[in-house]
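Handout, page 2. Input:
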Amino acid sequence: MRSAIILFKDEEAGILTQHDDGSFTFSYHPAWQKDTGKPSISLTLPKARREFHSGHLFPFFYNMLPEGSNKQIICKAKRIDADDHFSLLMSVAQHDTIGAVRVIKQ
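Output:
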């Protein structure tokens, strides 16, 4: 099992977990969930539910991954299997992302 902290504008919003069977869970922190001033991190991951389950990486996080030659270069340089989306996400979404969400090691 592997997990990562999900930051929204540098505040901890939740936890993304990859289970040993390859499935994923995303859960909001209780404090984030209760605070009406805090937004959902994605329209597909609304605060209406505290926990989400999926057999594959959630599309919101998958769309943060590089594609094509950029993906190949990063995978080769960091020795990441091209199908290991969690490791790739951890590698590229820690520091500089397009949106307000970052993914860091727990």
